[in-house]
Input
Amino acid sequence: MNALLMVLLLPGPGPNQLPGIPAAEKADNKVEAEEARAIAKKLAGEYVFQLDKSSGQNLRLEPEPVFRWLLQLDRRFYSDVYVWTHEGRPEVVAAITNIYGARRAMETEIHSLSTGLPLLLHGGKIVWEPERPGVELKPIPGAPKPGPTAVVRSTQMGTLAAQHSVVADYGNMKKEDMRLLPKPIYRYISEKQGVTDGALFAFVRGTDPEAFLMIEARKGQNGVEWQYTFARFNGHCSLRAERDGREVWKVDALSTKVNTDPKQPYYGLRKYSDFPVVK
Output
């Protein structure tokens, strides 16, 4: 694996985004923050995600992160979340996190949001090639028909997202309710894929996304309907989602071996040295 690829799984507002990325808390160390952002942007630009192996078609990197989060404890975490899209729809989400402390580290999380099999090349080599789709979209029971305008659909998606809750279990009887960010981190339309409207919501611990909820208006058996899917963004805990008191999604904590398996839709790696120089 190329030394410059640092992936842990694994989204300025673009034309298909809602305005106003949720802002992380102000960093005490602006030099660190600026360096971390530059490194993340450089690495994001080096990653070549493809739609699938047969087509060889590259996904489009949205040029700016769709979300940023910051955590300052004994170490300082600066994370930028990017998305790669196909025909407007996000197919991959990745967070590149720089960690400053007694020992420098970097993490990148990747999760496939595709119903297909995307892959990642870096330095001309395939470094991530999941063997199964990252998501499976299902109708939201009892959801209203998607509205006729973007404004109405935005309200509907926000209401549907708020009907869901996510609990993370970190072991040793430590469970926490995740907080749903009030606005999606990415809003999109993909006419070619039959997506009338869509949004990616984040459930966070502090400001750190632990799970994503994707909601799309797309064609189903009875015409255009609201569909949804969840994607984990933490491998060290189990995650459970409910809607109106009924479990709708659950994943168990992953072993380190599975969490670093490039054949899985969620993939991760930590790096402690050999950081790229940003010029």
About this structure: The longest strand covers residues 208-220. The first helix runs from residue 30 to 46. Residues 30-271 form one domain.
